[in-house]
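Fill in residues.
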């Protein structure tokens, strides 16, 4: 079947030309190839971060910046927490890493899986650990298809995803991603993926009808679209699509790589929106970035065919699935989140951030402010122009606040969840100064 069934009016443009370098050309200085970067510029002008403390990071010259993005949405408990570093160091001296294949386990991996299962929306869930979010998404997509194979419905292979979605950059994640520039230039992506508009529940029903309910394996959905521009779902959207997917007998995969572990004020946004997902993906906030770790939570009915039937092996996993030291980092971080009331603070930040950012919508060059679900917001600029959003983000950095250009010409606001009320104001002031500087004649 066709790989992408697109409902009308895609908001994306493809690059109009391809740039070719002659083979004799001298490339810019610096060997590091940055992700998602215009390397012709970046190689000679990297912004080098050397230290972090609380909600701030410092550059090579010792200049301090308020981190308005928590790095890539993950530094939820802030920088420089020595109790995480100490616990990881102790673990590394004892056993830095051991794998989890077949019957191998480590105490931190066993403990972490139990802890995450106890926080999960569905009691009795099982936890498959990975090394990051893209691993988690590919694991979830394969699990959805493989589950149906195990229960005798192998024809269920279709995966539904949303425009503007970001599900990481592995094979399935790229194919399930809803931003055309991220899918461009690879030839055919994974088959049986259906993209639907991000905000229209009827489009999901139509897509299910179009392919046939009996062919649908799963819909994958960020409870709040993150990298695609911080787009909270419209009122009623999530319950409607959840129900449509349930009626089709398919699985609902909540991609909580950003929203999990506190960013939306609960352990999982799925709990907040009562989604009862069959599968949840997580990463980022689980370790707050102290070490890389991700994973998949499978509801008991999804895990059952693999746990109950002797001889069934899911031939899937990664060398660093549940890396031992990373599991220790997660255990300490989750303890800090609990002990320091970080979930409650994320709830408070929801209102504080929107109140502080709202006046920015009057600035020249700003269209509106989006957000209002946890510590997630976007300043939508008037032009859908990544270059302009990039230069506005640089001007904000000059003004002492780190933000980032996202899909659709918006600036990312996702600070560490430890931000104080004064720092919320500092964030809004820095963004204002940067936006004003970038629109000055
Ligand atoms: N899923 C979502 C919703 C994400 O936002 C991301 C990363 O930003 C990923 C998956 C991929 O995670 P990673 O970059 O850790 O591979």
């Amino acid at each position: 079947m066709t790989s992408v069934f697109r409902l009308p009016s895609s908001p994306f443009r493809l690059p109009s030309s391809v740039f070719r370098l002659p083979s004799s050309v001298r490339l810019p200085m610096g060997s590091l190839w940055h992700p998602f970067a215009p390397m012709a510029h970046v190689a000679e002008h990297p912004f080098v971060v050397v230290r972090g403390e609380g909600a701030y990071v410092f550059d090579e010259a010792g200049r301090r910046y308020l981190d308005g993005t928590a790095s890539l949405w993950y530094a939820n408990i802030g920088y420089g927490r020595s109790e995480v570093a100490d616990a990881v160091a102790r673990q590394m001296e004892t056993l830095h890493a051991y794998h989890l294949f077949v019957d191998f386990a480590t105490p931190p991996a066993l403990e972490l899986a139990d802890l995450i299962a106890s926080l999960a929306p569905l009691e009795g869930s099982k936890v498959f650990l990975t090394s990051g979010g893209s691993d988690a998404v590919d694991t979830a997509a394969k699990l959805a298809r493989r589950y149906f194979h195990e229960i005798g419905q192998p024809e269920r292979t279709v995966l539904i995803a949303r425009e503007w979605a970001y599900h990481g950059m592995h094979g399935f994640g790229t194919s399930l991603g809803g931003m055309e520039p991220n899918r461009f230039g690879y030839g055919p992506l994974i088959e049986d993926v259906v993209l639907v508009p991000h905000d229209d529940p009827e489009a999901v029903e139509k897509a299910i009808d179009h392919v046939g309910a009996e062919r649908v394996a799963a819909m994958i959905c960020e409870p709040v679209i993150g990298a695609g521009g911080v787009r909270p779902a419209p009122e009623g959207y999530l319950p409607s699509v959840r129900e449509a997917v349930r009626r089709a007998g398919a699985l609902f995969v909540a991609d909580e790589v950003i929203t999990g572990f506190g960013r939306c004020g609960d352990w999982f946004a799925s709990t907040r929106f009562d989604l009862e997902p069959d599968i949840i993906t997580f990463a980022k906030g689980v370790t707050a970035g102290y070490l890389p770790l991700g994973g998949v939570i499978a509801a008991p009915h999804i895990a059952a065919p693999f746990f109950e039937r002797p001889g069934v092996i899911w031939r899937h996993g990664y060398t660093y699935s549940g890396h031992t030291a990373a599991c220790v980092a997660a255990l300490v971080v989750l303890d800090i989140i609990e002990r320091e009331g970080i979930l409650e603070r994320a709830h408070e930040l929801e209102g504080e951030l929107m109140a502080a950012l709202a006046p920015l919508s009057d600035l020249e060059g700003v269209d509106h402010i989006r957000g209002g679900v946890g510590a997630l917001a976007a300043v939508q600029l008037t032009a859908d122009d990544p270059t302009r959003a990039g230069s506005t983000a640089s001007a904000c950095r000059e003004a002492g606040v780190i933000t980032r250009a996202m899909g659709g010409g918006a600036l990312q606001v996702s600070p560490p969840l430890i931000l104080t009320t004064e720092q919320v104001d500092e964030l809004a002031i820095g963004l204002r100064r940067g936006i004003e500087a970038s629109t000055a004649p």
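The first strand starts at residue 49 and ends at 53.
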